[in-house]
Amino acid sequence: MMIDVKIYLCGMKKLFFLIIGLLVIFSSALAQKNNGKEYSFKLALLKYGGGGDWYANPTSLPNLAKFCNENLGTNIDPEYATVEPGSMEIFNYPYVHITGHGNIYFTPEEAANLRKYLISGGFLHISDNYGLDKYIRRELKKVFPDAELVELPFDHPIYHQKYDFPHGLPKIHKHDGLPPQGFGIIYHGRLVVFYDYECDLGDGWEDPEVHHDPPEKREAALKMGANILSYVFSH
């Protein structure tokens, strides 16, 4: 009987060290995948239906992550995720970004999943790349039928995180030449959707050679983006 116990304990010990070894191997592989650095989380880009170019501005989120890591002390993976509105994967990401120029469409199931994500603590940032406005307003009514996009006042905390924007959003690209506006949907006192209109923060985050924006405009866009993420982290 004593021998059986020793054999059992020896087997358990081997199993324990095997598990530890596998965990070490897994951790090492993960670190290599992220160039030797383990990150706290990723930002996510929403891959929506309807034919619009959801994939516009491919360098935006990596540049925003890098800027925040350097200036806010965050630990965001520069490689963003791509998620669909109806997927459970969306719940893995605290911040989801929408951009594009054209049509966007949510199925009833996708709208319900997005609503669940947002009321569970998620955050959706929409950056109109010019042409998205009429479509995103229509689709957001599916997500929150009883809520309206409201313009946020200039004293809203999202404009006053590390960087101060006393006059609201910076104007990055011309579009129709209108003043930039920041809209939001507030659910039970919490801002769950932020929409920059006539501003185009996403374009401002892109690599300098993409749009050839003046350095001060690009910096303003990145600072406002950092404010958005700082707000998400703290609310």
Structure at a glance:
This protein is α/β, with parallel strands linked by helices and 235 residues long. The protein has helices at 2-33, 60-71, 108-119, 133-143, 201-205, 208-211, 215-234; strands at 41-46, 76-83, 95-100, 123-128, 150-151, 181-187, 190-197.
Helix and strand topology:
Elements: H1 2-33, E1 41-46, H2 60-71, E2 76-83, E3 95-100, H3 108-119, E4 123-128, H4 133-143, E5 150-151, E6 181-187, E7 190-197, H5 201-205, H6 208-211, H7 215-234
Parallel strand pairs: 1-2, 1-3, 3-4, 4-7
Antiparallel strand pairs: 5-6, 6-7
Q: Any idea what the CATH architecture of the largest domain is? A: 3-Layer(aba) Sandwich
Termini Cα gap: 59 Å
Task: Describe the strand arrangement of the main beta sheet, using strand numbers.
Answer: 2-1-3-4-7-6-5
H/I helix tally: 7
The strand count comes to 7
| Uncertain segments | 1-33
Helical fraction: 40-55%
Give the quaternary arrangement of the chains: single chain
Query: What is the SS-derived class?
Result: alpha/beta
Q: Roughly what fraction of the amino acids lie in strands?
A: 15-25%
Note the main attributes of this structure.
single chain; 235 residues; alpha/beta; Rossmann fold; 2 domains; seven-stranded mixed beta sheet; 41% helix
